[in-house]
Amino acid sequence: MITTGTFPVDPWCVREPHLALEVLAQTESVFALSNGHIGLRGNLDEGEPHAIPGTYLNSYYESRPLPYAEAGYGYPEDGQTVVDVTNGKLLRLLVDDEPFDVRYGELLQHERTLDLRAGTLSRCADWISPAGKRVRLRSTRLVSFAHRAVAAISYEVEAVDEDVRITVQSELVANEEQPHLTGDPRVAAALDKPLVAVEQDVEQHGALLVHRTRSSELLMAAGMDHVVTAPGRMTEETDARPDWARTTIVCGLAAGEVLRVVKFLAYGWSSVRSVPAVRDQVAAALTSARYSGWEGLLAGQRAYLDDFWDGADVEVDGDPVVQQAVRFGLFHILQAGARAERRAVPAKGLTGPGYDGHAFWDTEGFVLATLTATAPDAAADVLRWRHSTLDLAKERAELLGLRGAAFPWRTIRGQECSAYWPAGTAAFHVNAVIAFAAERYRLMTGDTSFEDDGGLELLVETARLWMSLGHHDARGAWHIDGVTGPDEYTAVVDDNVFTNLMAARNLRAAADACARNPGRARTLGASTEETASWRDAAKAVHIPYDADLGVHPQSESFTRYAEWDFEASKDDYPLLLHVPYFQLYRTQVVKQADLVLAMHWCPEAFDEGQKARNVDYYERRTVRDSSLSACTQSVMCARTGHLELAHDYLHEAALVDLRDLHGNARDGLHMASMAGAWSALVDGFGGMAIEESTLSIDPQLPDGMTRLAFRLHWHGMRVLVEVTGSQVRVELRDGADAVVDLLIAGERVQLSAEEPVVRPWRRRAPLLAQPPQPTGREPDTRE
């Protein structure tokens, strides 16, 4: 368990002042570096000790058969698992003849710092070897945002008290041994030596290895190059074998002298290009990195992040814990998507192997909500990745006997990889969430290029899916039966409210897009009769309502299910590891926000009284066994006046990894929860929403915050929103001739770059008392 003292609170960095081996696995995830293409876990430079060694390339995977006790028609046959590719982080150190290992000798000092503005992981160590030789070690690591294929490490060793011989072994190692796994389904499947050696080259100051996966036959190359600065005589030798390459540097240091090694790394992969093409791409990236030099890479990294923070930063006065956590989350979300360039954003980013490296619906639902507002180009790239898999989604729909496109519940390449139907294929809402993200991107950015490039086709094919899933009853109401909503403890149900509302939104968005693009709509075969049927279904969608209780069942008849005995299960969380799913499916226990999420994303479908009663009802039944829940509960508690409870949930969402609240940060960070923490601040306390096509700000600050300021991009312009205890100030930071229509606390105003708009805001009184939570599932008390 990560304690409050593991990472001291700091607004712009995450610092580990002392090495804590008991949480080494978690810190490997926290200190991971990535640019969306390359991911390096925060393993120690020398490679040992480690918990999970990890070097990842986005969408580079190995195929494996999915096991079934009983197969069924339409079940996916193959899974995909992210591969730990060639490790280039390794820099082994020998002091005289003794290896530097933090478990031996005397470690006088050890500190690691993740700098959120510099984009680097730095390390300082002061160590006395078992033979009494003292050295100081300083290393800094980065994965470049400016150079997509490049990572680099600056590694310095200083002799402290006396002369010493220093040996540095800089390595590339493929097919590292992976740890044994547990029975937790959220943990990745193990792969034994997935890489087959293709080629090895020794270069003047480094080496290059080329490998191919055994089954998926994806080609990858990794290369290293070095610049060595030594005070006196130095030798350098390089050797390579099929699964490793090593550059060995030896020199003598007198007291106070320093050996410096700058290691440049480059990675590339392809499913179609030749061995020479991939090899030469990596060689070129190394040459480019050497040309830029270490200082040039550092400067490029800082410039990239300065630009990002200028349009994305969130300031939280009065709550320094959340201040650190939200910036940590934004940094990792940027790392996950910045240079993905038409690849997925996995649920764990590139920070660990959890969930096999798969992307789920939370990519579009949560992560893209944040990226669209803070790094819109990255969001557009992820949407284009989804569109690139449309043909596979259409094939999947046809296999299921449906029209249109059925996107996978979990995937790397685009094929369905979920072996569990009730919480996989049956969760069709992923398709509506993808459409929702596409429409949100258009509304927020004003950019129609994605709609022109394939977004229209995506909306049309998902609309066709819903029309083949839904049906009109004898009274004309439109229903969707036999699906699973966000709550995976209530599966294969009829008329899940979230699914129905999101499907209706999808249908309306598709019809509107066809109206905007009539020529291309005709090319796609979308006639006026077909789009009219979409509008009819959306208008007639059935939304269950329990008039006796005054709440919405999250699916038909949910409120008549038996109540769950929360007292009896208070020590058995997460329930999915302790209780048969059959028992969960037939009772009123909610894994994660479902109906409550519907109120967040489709607020126009509920009046204020319904929102208040629904929050009250589902707070008492939601156990938050998913990291996706706390952020949504925070937003809706803020919007219904329960500001202190909303603040508690914000802490849970923001600290899910920095405090390892779900006990699985070792397998990688929770991208959606970190994005959800941003949403809890911006959508919840900041009151940001898009009403039709207008940006709306309607803030509510809890007592524990004195000021909230957030930056976002709106139609290509930077906007600053600042909320204090009595007023909200909105500033348009560029767009000299632009005028933006806004809603501020319900008042329609116009904003220009000439002058900010300032308006008062008033705290909303809750309609109901603050609701309790299930026994033992109250949010943790804020620090």
Assigned CATH architecture of the domain at 31-310: Distorted Sandwich
Task: Report the radius of gyration as a whole number of Å.
Answer: 27 Å
> Into which percentage range does the β-strand content fall?
25-35%
**Class by alpha and beta content:** alpha+beta
Bin the helical content.
Answer: 25-40%
What overall geometry do the principal axes of the alpha carbons give? globular
Specify the CATH class of the domain at 31-310.
Mainly Beta
The assembly state of the depicted protein chains is single chain
Q: How do the strands line up in the largest sheet?
A: 1-9-10-11-12-19-16-15-14
Count of β-strands: 32
Instruction: Please work out how many helical segments DSSP would assign.
Output: 17
Mean pLDDT: 96
Low-pLDDT ranges: none
Distance between the termini: 16 Å
- Superfamily at the CATH H level of the domain at 31-310? Glycoside hydrolase, family 65, N-terminal domain
Q: Under CATH, the topology of the domain at 31-310 is which? A: Beta-galactosidase, Chain A, domain 5
